[in-house]
Design a protein that fits this description.
3 helices; 18% helix; globular; alpha/beta; 29% strand; five-stranded mixed β-sheet
Length: 133
């Protein structure tokens, strides 16, 4: 299991606030760990290479080298077949707050570890001037 290192993830104040209230604060352990260890910054100050909510992220699977694009979203907007993955999912929690170049790691249903490198962020709301998404 990958240990979260303090300061390795960055969340915006807006994302942190909305996520803290999700499910009345009864979050999956992986997401609770992300919130507990993240550096929180103002939306206008978050670097453009950080995965925030509704960022469109380009990934390369560490094991298969398969490339894919995913958007991290809130559960109500999740549509996995269209590439919209819930922040409550293992992959969504693993991506949130990481920077381009980082490797996201998560537990798959069978117990094995999934891992993918973040190679680019095709879209980040804050970088486009959307601070309230």
């Amino acid at each position: 299991m990958h240990a979260t290192i303090l300061g390795e993830r960055t969340l915006t104040e807006h994302d942190f606030s909305r996520l803290s209230k999700l499910l009345d604060g009864h979050l999956p352990p992986a997401l609770a760990n992300v919130l507990g260890a993240a550096e929180v910054t103002r939306s206008r100050e978050v670097p453009a290479d950080v995965v925030t909510m509704y960022s469109q992220v380009e990934l390369v699977d560490i094991h298969t080298r398969r490339r894919q694009t995913l958007t991290v979203c809130f559960p109500g907007d999740a549509e996995p077949s269209a590439g919209f993955i819930s922040v409550l999912s293992p992959v969504g929690s693993a991506l949130l707050g990481l920077k381009v170049g980082a490797v996201a790691r998560w537990q798959m249903p069978g117990g094995e570890e999934g891992a993918a490198e973040i190679v680019a962020i095709a879209f980040q709301p804050e970088a486009s001037g959307d601070y309230a998404r």
